[in-house]
Amino acid sequence: MATGIEAKGYVGQRIKRKEDPRLLTGAGRFADDVKATDELYCAILRSPHPHARIVRVDTSKAKAIPGVVAAVSGAEAIPHWNMLPPAMDLMEMKLPKVYALATDKVYYEGDAVAAVAAESRYVAEDALAAIEVEYEILPAVASIEEALGGPWLADVVSGDGSTELPDNPLMPGETLQALGEDVGKGGVATEPAAASGTPKAILYEEWGHNIQCDWKFEIGDPDAAFATADHVVRRRVGTHRYSGMPLECRAVLAEYDRGRDRLTVRMSTQFPHQARTFIAAVFDLPEPNVQLLADDVGSGYGNKLQIDAEVIPVLLSKLTGRPVKWTEERRGWLTSAPHSRNYIHDVEGAFSADGRLLAMRERIVGDQGCDGAVRTAGLGALLVGGTYATGAYDVQSYSAHVQALVTNKAPYGAYRGYGKETANLPIERLMDAAADQLGIDKVEIRRRNLVDEFPYEMPAGPIIESASFRKSLDDVVEAMDLPALRRRQEDARAEGRYLGIGTVVYLEPSAGSIPMSVFNGYESATVRLTPGGQVMVLTGMQTIGQGMETAMSQITADRLGVRPEDVRVVYGNTESVPYGLGAYASRGATYGMSAVYEAAGQVRDKLLKAAANLLEASPEDLEIQDGVVSLVGAPAKRIEVKEVAKAVYLFPGPYAVLPDEPNPTLEGTFVWTNPNVSWTPDEHGRVRLYPTHGCGAQGALVEVDPETGQISIEKIWLCHDVGKVINPAIVEAQVVGGLLQGIGGVMMEQLVYDEDGRMLTKTLNDYQVPNSMSAPPVELMHNETASPITPLGTKGVGEAGVIGTPAVLMAAVEDALRPLGVDHVSMTPLDPQRVLAMIQDARS
Amino acid sequence: MGEERQTVELTVNGSAHECEVEPRTLLVDVIRDELRLTGTHTGCEEGICGACTVEVDGKLVKSCLMFAVQADGCEVTTVEGIGEDGEMGRVQQAMWESHAVQCGFCTPGMVVAAENLLKNNPNPSEDEIRAHLVGNICRCTGYHPIIKAVQKASNATVVELRSA
Q1: Which residue ranges in chain A fall short of pLDDT 70?
Q2: What global pTM score does this model have?
Q3: Residue A145 CA to its chain's centroid (Å)
Q4: Which residues of B touch A121 (CB under 8 A)?
């Protein structure tokens, strides 16, 4: 397949971003920047209780406040809309039946109960205080154990084979206990695992339990491998609750035109088309009558991939007949926008004497808050975690058991990583533990197990089409100069200072293509060459800060022989662009770009045919560069692209310039799908949902202060391989940005509920994110192993920085604290209290 | 619950404005809603994220924590007032070259904060830059390219925080 890349191509260049001038000068267009005539402002009343029945809501006093135009409770809203449609519906997951405004129950502190539309946001917020709500408080489920009604897992065996509990700091509300449990063979569990007691409460009474999804898988014969292995290594590892926290909270401007039964919704969203589909469904509007608009989006990182409270301003617009603006306050975001991470793994590896991983068992339990499939779509992340937990290593006997539990906390959504970081944690910690237990060097044990031959079929089904695990690890190890670091570490210890080193390998599956879900697997593009010789690229992708307009311009420019500045990328308007799926799972460089590439290819073919007719030459003998079509080897025989375009469209027109050509305008449309996606289960029941795989390796050097518990990161090394790179500056920017989010998540950011389910971290004072002082030095390295299945060889980037960061930081801190008797660092957050707690526990 | 409106006089980016505001109206809301200068953003209304950063009488202010009436008679500079004759200022130009922008939501606040630094400290050290920008959160870039851009804009020695 021709690449269409010219010698002086734009693809691969670090060109400056087209998005930047408007963003730098304050001329961006974020949802709240647009004003409608006569707009009202929406404020949402949220539940102060984590679990309660709603007895009575009285909005009458709010309605009477001057400036308030409407006030509505969940019960009052019922006739005007439908329940929220599921964002994912597979693997027999349980789907809550809820409205965007709670009707009979609230399920978390922050659940939306009522809403107001008023002439100003100030009046709307005042009016919330006048809404009277009577609750009947119910017991709150605030932990995995309370959700299950008993302890979670079988005997916890620590690395040395004893049955003592590992001394890990606990997540709030969690306890480590033991319960026997069998892992069955294959398929989806239709009955939840029986717990020994009764759940503290059941969120959705019709379920009879709190398990939203329960998935088991097995292949090979792990039991036999474990029974005969030289060594069995087991670790429990987990993370606390945190999330993306984009700087722009949710924002919606909804405008309902009663005369035409038409709805226009401007939204800060990552997926305009799915948003349109869901909004139409909630309001029983014909979907062609709904238009979704999104220009600039103040990032999302996955957290803006749902329709939940977003429909509340739409409801108010329908009720009032006026445009309604909702701009969420930060407190609202932290309490009700999607939460993430918050899972525990119990992982076991059967190893040979020389460190070869023969079989692996992985058990994951995740705290989904009140929901991970309807209000939001984070449940899939746990399944991705269970699917990818064998990581970069060659092992073919594997069993996984994933349970997604509901608790009385905010809903669980997508966040950068979406299970890939979930998967990286157990396998990388297992490798470190095995290295310790077997007495093998931590880098060496990885080397003995890395996959080298591609394509490689992982035990749970995904096919890694190409990767550079070994080279990435080698590059990082060489750059770190481990022997020198070890000498520094020894010298430091002699001075009473504790340096620690960690190295991990990571796998970065991208372009998630999940059936029965909003995270589906195709992307659309239309490319139009205008009579003036400029190009419009209509894409179903969405700009969220990832430089999509620039990268698409580079590809289109190369494909059509024009300059990037001649290309305008159109997105975020469901009336203009073909149905596409937006930005998630690092799919832009594969799905997004490939669709553009193919659509532009259609235009290129017709452009060359037309030029050939005008030049009386053969299309094969022509080339296009800088807006000029010329004969190869005889550049004097030439015509400008804009002349060709003008000739095709109007002067004289297609009958003359493209005779007998079907679709004789310079436009092309393509919907790209990936041949490596398979939804038909094979003989083991496996499907393949992520068609492209980036990879890399990461190293960390930290110093831990045993007096204060502070961890300072002296340096991070990160080698990334994302396949063909369209714009290296954009790729590097994403990797570093993701790295800081990973660091923030591991060390600073905490979404905390107390043992009664009360939310404690509602401001940015509580939810601390990295600032300019937090960014450590980073050495980036780069490999480029092209994908064999995408037209440009691209694989997708965006999540690299968060995937390996938790494991590498845990490894480094563990390495630093070993002399103090801390053998296992297995849980985040790694904040000063917990570090000190680990040191204390080790001393006593 | 409505409050009596007052008139405030603000000179914003060199232009005089007279606005009728309630005493409780935040400066950021006047800037965005009344004056329609939407470059300044609201990210938290708690004074932490810095997306609302402007200059009031030469000092950096979180405009979500200031009432418009407190700025009566003051000179306010927003991102729209940076640069001259339609050209980007030196910080903006350097950020563009350094790929220091991703989603752009923090960017106006960063630009105003960085320009303010360089006005008072034309050759800041890396530590001074980091300390000065500590009130401007960015979730996208990881800060490296922003720090580098400020160094470039100041003609100070660019210390590579990130080597490749």
Answers
A1: 1-8, 153-196
A2: 0.94
A3: 27
A4: 29
| Cis? peptide before A192, omega within 30° of 0 | no
What is the reported pLDDT for B159? Answer: 64
B:31-60 residues touching chain A, CB 8 A cutoff: 32-33, 36-46, 48-49, 51
Which pLDDT score, from 0 to 100, does residue B157 have?
A: 62
The full DSSP string for A156-185 is ---TTS--PPP--PPPTT------------
Contact residues on chain B for A777, CB-CB shorter than 8 A: 161-163
Long-range contacts of A649-656 (CB under 8 A, 24+ apart): A649/A531, A650/A531
Q: Is B158 on the interface with A (CB under 8 A)?
A: no
How far off is chain B from A15, nearest CA to CA, in Å? 9
Chain B, window 113-142: residues with a beta carbon less than 8 angstroms from a chain A beta carbon:
129-131, 133-142
Residue among A23, A119, A301 with most chain B CBs within 10 A, to mutate: A23
> Strand order in A132-137's β-sheet?
A105-106, A52-58, A132-137
Closest residue of chain B to A741, computed from CA coordinates: B139
**Residue A815 contacts residue A501 (beta carbons within 8 Å):** yes
Q: Is A396 exposed, middle or buried (0-12, 13-18, 19+ CB in 10 A)?
A: middle
Is it the case that residue B10 has pLDDT exceeding 70?
yes
Short-list A445, A342, A327, A333, CA closest to A395: A445
Give yes or no for a contact between B118 and B124, defined as CB atoms under 8 angstroms apart.
yes
Sign of the alpha-carbon dihedral angle for A598, A600, A606, A611: negative
Distance (Å) of CA A386 to CA A143, A417, A468, A815, B124: 21, 13, 22, 27, 49
Q: What is the pLDDT of residues B62-113, one digit of tens each?
A: 999 999 999 999 999 999 999 988 899 999 999 999 999 999 999 999 999 9
Q: What is the pLDDT of residues A138-180, one digit of tens each?
A: 999 999 999 998 877 643 333 333 333 333 333 333 333 222 2
Q: Give residue A158's pLDDT.
A: 36
Q: What pLDDT, in 10s, does the model give residues B11-37?
A: 999 999 999 999 999 999 999 999 999
Query: Looking at residue B155, what is its pLDDT?
Result: 73
Write out chain A residues lying below 8 Å of B146, CB-based.
772
**A344: closest CA among A398, A409, A420, A422?**
A422
Tell which residue, A781, A789, A70, A687, has the closest CA to residue A380. Answer: A687
List all residues of chain B from 96 to 115 with a beta carbon under 8 Å from chain A: 96-97, 99, 101-108, 111
Select from A189, A167, A185 the least CA-distant residue to A176: A167
Six token digits for residue A743: 């660091």
Q: How far apart are CA A268 and CA A266, in angstroms?
A: 7
What is the pLDDT, as a whole number, of residue A193? 45
pLDDT tens per residue, range B139-162: 999 999 999 999 999 976 666 666
Angle (deg, nearest 10), helices A482-494 and A469-480: 40
Burial A702-725 (b: 16+ CB within 10 A, else e): bbbebeebebebbebbbbbbbbbb
pLDDT in tens, A103-129: 999 999 999 999 999 999 999 999 999
Interface TM-score (ipTM) > 0.90: yes
Residue of chain A whose alpha carbon sits nearest to that of B146? A772
DSSP B85: T
Structure tokens at A844: 């006593």
| CB contact (8 A) between residue A296 and residue B141 | no
Distance, CA of A630 to CA of A623 (rounded, Å):
6
Q: What's the token pair of residue A431?
A: 């490798």
